[in-house]
């Protein structure tokens, strides 16, 4: 059950602006979401049906899981 990860231009621009060591950690964690979009340590955001947040050091990655389409959309 592999999910496709959708990265918009604005998210890619934010990722590119990160320092290389942090960027590697964040990209690694994002790629793991394709196998398990709800890993341990994920927080479901209140007020949203399918939005989650995962913490990576001092950074947070917000994303939406679309189970019907098997996609993870980074927000």
Structure commentary:
This protein is of the alpha+beta class and 75 residues long. The chain has a single domain (4-74), classed as YaeB-like fold (2-Layer Sandwich), CATH 3.30.2310. The chain has 2 helices and 5 strands. The protein has a 5-stranded mixed sheet, with helices on one face. A hairpin with a 2-residue loop joins strand 3 (51-56) and strand 4. The longest helix is centred in the middle third of the chain and has 13 residues, at 20-32.
Shape estimate? globular
End-to-end separation: 22 Å
Mean pLDDT: 94
Total helical elements:
2
Helices and strands: which structural class?
Answer: alpha+beta
Overall number of domains:
1
CATH architecture: 2-Layer Sandwich
N-to-C series of helices and strands:
EHHEEEE
Most strands sheet: 5 strands, mixed
Query: CATH topology, anyone?
Result: YaeB-like fold
Q: Which sequence of strands runs across the widest sheet?
A: 1-5-4-3-2
Q: Which spans have pLDDT < 50 for at least 5 consecutive residues?
A: none
Number of strand segments = 5
- Looking at CATH, the homologous superfamily is RelE-like
How helical, in percent, are the residues? 25-40%
What tags apply to this protein structure?
YaeB-like fold, single chain, 75 residues, 2 helices, 28% helix, globular, alpha+beta
Quick recap of the structure?
The protein has 75 residues and is α+β, with helices and mostly antiparallel strands.
SSE map:
Blueprint: E1 4-6, H1 9-16, H2 20-32, E2 43-44, E3 51-56, E4 59-66, E5 71-74
Parallel strand pairs: 1-5
Antiparallel strand pairs: 2-3, 3-4, 4-5
